[in-house]
Structures
1.
Amino acid sequence: MQRFSPASPTRMETPSPASPAPTRRSRTIRIGDLALGGSAPIAVQSMAATRTQDREATLRQVHLLEEAGADLVRIAIDGAADVEALAWIRQNSKARLSVDLQENYRLALPVAPYVDKIRYNPGHLHHHEKDRPVADKVAWIAQVARDHDCAVRIGVNAGSIAPHYKERFPGDDVGAIVSCAADHCELLDDTGFENYLVSIKDSDPRLVIEANERFAELRPDVPLHLGVTEAGMPPDGVIKTRIAFEQLIARGIGDTIRVSLTVPFDDKGLEIEVGRQILADIAAGRFRSVPPNFFDGLNIIACPSCSRVENERFIELAADVKRETEWAAEHDITIAVMGCRVNGPGETDDADLGLWCGPTTVNLKQGTRSLGSFGYDQILPRLRAELETLIAEKST
Ligand code: SF4
């Protein structure tokens, strides 16, 4: 499957350090008291990784990210107990808050009074009320946002694209996600709601670059939230993110950024520090290049974790997978390590080997095929065995 055009970032035209930064053409929207888009500074944001219902821990995350300089902090909401925790967090923090609706778009109504922005994933709208047209659901979200003075993010993710876009664009993931994002902009435009932005993310920075460039050509007026999802652990996660941000921001594309890194909860402020450093480097013309073979060899992708992580051993496991597979560094194989059972099963489908974490076991997959679930103490030898088999198969 072609996931991106053959052009690699190393062969892309690198903007001259002497060139003035191009003007962003997006309109300005408002998230609480934060102006975003147009000539406003590029905002830096992140997400609480703790379970939302553990409200003290989540409030600590909000404070930690705020102190690191976050302009906006996102929290995942899966049900009524999360909404209750969010209300308590709102009472105890002045941070600008955003929520991720995930599967249940109806949660927009109870959360809206407590937040400044609501993110919905077009790929998740079909999970509930399957007979209700998507346009109705989007119009309803827009009305809720309008009533509570919230912004909306259309958050498209290549790993969870609505099924009919895959059918319309067979073998062209970029076409599918760009078209999905543009269609949802039109749905919001039809309601007269303008206080929205778009994100188009993937774990491959090359896809992120191409998709955001194509979208910005179609809709230069719509502010863009940039991010490389599941970038993984530093330093690789930082490098992947920098590749995408340099190419896009230097072309005037991108109004807010999120750096996604798989790091312990207490180190999440690093996402903000790295984001600000990348922005400062781009503004000063300090571009980093990567060698042409940067994308060759073993590729470990790992989600940044969020409130859906049910076993904190996920973070340690991601680091263990990286260390224990170093012997296979030369092989062109992708291993995905995901933190939860909500997005883990889907987000590992495109990897050669995928691991997604449950409360007591880790589920192992080869592509879309399940290889079973294993205890946290058993998974690494099993992964090694599968990796050896895969390498042997590929070399015959
Ligand atoms: S895969 Fe699950 S735990 Fe990881 S960031 Fe996505 S939703 Fe959160």
2.
Amino acid sequence: MCSVGGLRVTLHIMTLRLLILGLLIWLIWRWLYRPRRTTTTPTEPSLQNMVRCARCGLHVPERDAVSKAGRFYCSAQHQLEDGQ
Ligand SMILES: [Zn+2]
């Protein structure tokens, strides 16, 4: 009985060691393959193609602008208002 209990404890320690080892490997792996942070901001306003709202004249990035029939608008609201 005593030896069985001892074996169980040994197995428990082994499992714990494996868990710690796995955690360490995971931490090292994460540290090695961590995403590299770029110092430059992804959305540089000066680098973006700016368009002028046909309704209010506000300059907005082209990807944020609402375009219709070759005209750009700062919002869907201004696009609707211009159509009226
Ligand atoms: Zn507008």
